[in-house]
Amino acid sequence: MADRERAFVALGSNLGDRAGHLMLARRRLAELPDTRLVRASAIAETAPLGTVAQGAYLNQMVLLETALSPRALLTSCLEIERAAGRVRAERWGPRTLDLDIVRYGDRIVREPGLVVPHPELEHRPFWREEMEELESARE
Fold it and tell me: Which of 38, 39, 87, 137 is the most core-located residue (most Cβ within 10 A)?
């Protein structure tokens, strides 16, 4: 098997069966080729960001070991979002499922539609807390 890198993927949902959408995401991420879901953080409820009126989010971070490229992982994340009924209507709007690649090894990626580390990482303390939780729970 190809060399794997550690990737942190943020999961969020504020429409419908929020916990069910996160469960679907964890399952589907674990099923990706050449990928292992190492662990998942605790689920936290957070207020929505931005100016669009909407309900609270359930958020979680997962740590993957994957041989997928960052672009291939993003493509898979978008497919998982669609499977959960995600419709991209408005920026910062409500969603059934949102998957964000927050970090991918030590890589810096600046491509159309893909920026890693995620540019909002410094503005989301709950992401940093979830990542610290995952990193402190070594195997």
Answer: 38
